[in-house]
């Protein structure tokens, strides 16, 4: 799985880069920032719960 970890850089750019590189998900503390994303969005805790 390829994931982008949110680093508080311009969110639209992060999302566009992740989508263009076929990433599977974004990991972020604020999921509301990625409401329009086509990627799966997880909090750090949700990522840890994935088997």
Class computed from helices, strands and strand pairing:
alpha/beta
Instruction: Estimate the helix proportion, in percent.
Output: 25-40%
How many helices? The count is 2
Q: How far do the termini sit from each other? A: 12 Å
Low-confidence stretches: none
Write out the strand line-up for the largest beta sheet, numbering strands in chain order.
1-2-3
Radius of gyration: 10 Å
Largest sheet, in brief, is: 3 strands, parallel
Mean pLDDT: 84
Describe what you observe in this structure:
The protein is of the alpha/beta class and 51 residues long. 31% of the residues lie in helices and 18% in strands. It contains two helices and three strands; from the N terminus they run βαββα. It has a three-stranded parallel beta sheet with strand order 1-2-3. The longest helix has 10 residues, at 11-20. The two termini are 12 Å apart. The mean pLDDT is 84.
Task: Write the topology of this structure.
Blueprint: E1 3-5, H1 11-20, E2 25-27, E3 40-42, H2 44-49
Parallel strand pairs: 1-2, 2-3
Primary descriptors:
51 residues; alpha/beta; 3 strands
Q: Could you give a quick summary of the protein structure above?
A:
The protein has 51 residues and is an alpha/beta fold.
């Amino acid at each position: 799985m390829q994931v982008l970890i949110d680093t508080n850089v311009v969110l639209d750019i992060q999302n566009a880069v992740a989508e263009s590189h076929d990433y599977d998900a974004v990991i972020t503390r604020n999921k509301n920032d990625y409401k329009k994303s086509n990627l799966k969005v997880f909090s750090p805790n949700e990522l840890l719960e994935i088997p």
